[in-house]
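Table S2 (text version). Query chain:
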Amino acid sequence: MKPNTPSRPHFQKSIPLRFGMAVGIGLLLVGCGKHYWNKPGAGPSDFNRDSAECARENSVQMTANKEYGIVIADLYKMCLKSRGWNRAQQLEPSPAEWFRGIEEDGPMRFAPPTSGASGLATNNTIYRLSFQKR
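Corresponding structure-token output:
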């Protein structure tokens, strides 16, 4: 004779499993893709200029000649947004006219601006520095 134990209906037993699977799938989908920047009508040179200017404006300078600095990523992102850039997650490969920017605080090397014939800076390159622990 079977002990008289109440049993739950089958659908109640599978609720925690379904919930766990839904959470797991959701986390996987959130992690897909990287963040990129876009501004209608803007091209790579526009992004490079705005990105470099925002990085310089929102960095703690490490050297007297302002060649190296630690970029504060949150301030950098707010700067680009104030210039009309939109940030969104995109799957790889990213669509055309979407550009990768700085995503975390860290040291950068700023290429010295060079003046063109009009007197405007023409080289706004930034380089991510990585340091290895020894």
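Notes on Table S2: The two ends are 70 Å apart (CA to CA). Strands lie at 34-38, 59-61, 68-71, 86-90, 106-110, 126-128.
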